[in-house]
Amino acid sequence: AQSVAQPEDQVNVAEGNPLTVKCTYSVSGNPYLFWYVQYPNRGLQFLLKYITGDNLVKGSYGFEAEFNKSQTSFHLKKPSALVSDSALYFCAVRLSSNTGKLIFGQGTTLQVKP
Amino acid sequence: GAGVSQTPSNKVTEKGKYVELRCDPISGHTALYWYRQSLGQGPEFLIYFQGTGAADDSGLPNDRFFAVRPEGSVSTLKIQRTERGDSAVYLCASSAQSYNEQFFGPGTRLTVL
Fold it and tell me: Alpha-carbon torsion B85, B87, B89, B92, what sign?
């Protein structure tokens, strides 16, 4: 069965330090991978995606993610965290067929402390 | 430009009632999606439209749930005989094509008493 796992319910990091939010997936075929962020009382916002090509993908607000096929992972990273990055982050996967259906992980709360 | 809009933002209803939730996608987006998000969970796929037709409705939980998109733009999610377990935030998203990133609306919070 297709699934996405975010093993950490919460990640705590000090402002200015690097951050990593983990995501692993299980799908058949080549996946399309996405990261979304959800701020309180706001909708999901697209951060970045991996379709094909370079394994390191750069996205909005200085975030990047690294696709690792052998480890079936797509971890979200940022070199220097900001307090304003504190939010709920979702990893999602879609099969490489034409279906638009996204399968989401359960989410990871990122808390950046000053 | 305008993003995805959803109305109402909040809906409180009684068990057994019928509700309709509306989604206005980004202009020109051919693909439209409905998801449901329960507290502490990631969004769960319900149905996806490509144009006017439902391309994938595999996520609809049962036959009380139905969605339409008659002119290929606005979509309505309809829930009959609501149950307390239907309480959740219902999210709508649209994309230019099915393989592009999806842009989400703010959601409709449905509470069934």
Answer: positive
- Average pLDDT for residues A44-73, to the nearest whole number? 93
Is it the case that residue B2 has pLDDT exceeding 90? no
Compute the distance between CA of residue B31 and CA of residue A21 in angstroms, rounded to an integer. 29
Question: Strand (E) positions, B51-87?
Answer: 53-56, 65-68, 75-79
| φ and ψ of A85, to 5 deg | -80, -10
Bridge partners (DSSP) of residue B23 are: B6, B75
- Pairing mode, strands A19-21 and A73-78: antiparallel
- For residue A97, name the pLDDT band (cuts at 50, 70, 90): low
Half-sphere exposure for A77 (CA within 13 Å, toward CB)? 12
Which of A44, A99, A105 is closest, CB to CB, to B56? A99
Interface test with B, best of A2, A32, A99, A108 (most B CBs within 10 A): A99
Mean pLDDT value of segment B49-65: 93
Q: Which of A2, A102, A106, A108 best tests the B interface by mutation, with the highest count of B CBs <10 A?
A: A102
pLDDT above 80: residue A95:
no
Q: What CA–CA distance (Å, rounded) separates B47 from B44?
A: 10
B-chain residue closest to A104, CA distance: B42
Q: Report the candidate in B101, B97, B104, B3 with the shortest Cα–Cα distance to residue B50.
A: B97
**Structural contact between residues B85 and B62, judged by C-beta atoms closer than 8 angstroms:** no
